[in-house]
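Support reply, case 0932

Customer input (verbatim):
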Amino acid sequence: MTTPLITAIASGDAPSAIGPYSQATLAGGFVFVSGQIPLHPSTGGIVEGGIREQTSRVLENISAVLKAAGLTMENVVRAEVFLKDLNDFSAMNEVYASFFPGAVKPARVAVQVSRLPRDVLVEISCIALKG
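Our regenerated output:
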């Protein structure tokens, strides 16, 4: 039996995909985590609060998906942050930094976009190295 080139990763501790995609995929030693929005995994609802609360929930969701792949936030090599309002950058960045306390931080891009799914304030995706 051959090993598939791409393997889906799923976690019950993160919101289920709300479209035709995987929470994450494993390919070539990398885990590609789909964009996470601030949905609470047990209710499927958007967390209450502002950019700090939403960023925290997004990163908790990412952490849960990485855990299902046997990884932690320390394995993240690149992150993409999509903000509804770039004026929220500083507050988002404070919360983001608390999830990446190590000396080596992931490479990152942060951009303002015109709209995000369910009109949330932030969406984050990432790539992590496995192995």
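We compared this against your earlier run and they match. Two observations from our side: Residues 2 and 27 are 14 Å apart (CA to CA). The chain has one domain: 6-129. Please reopen the case if you see a mismatch on your end.
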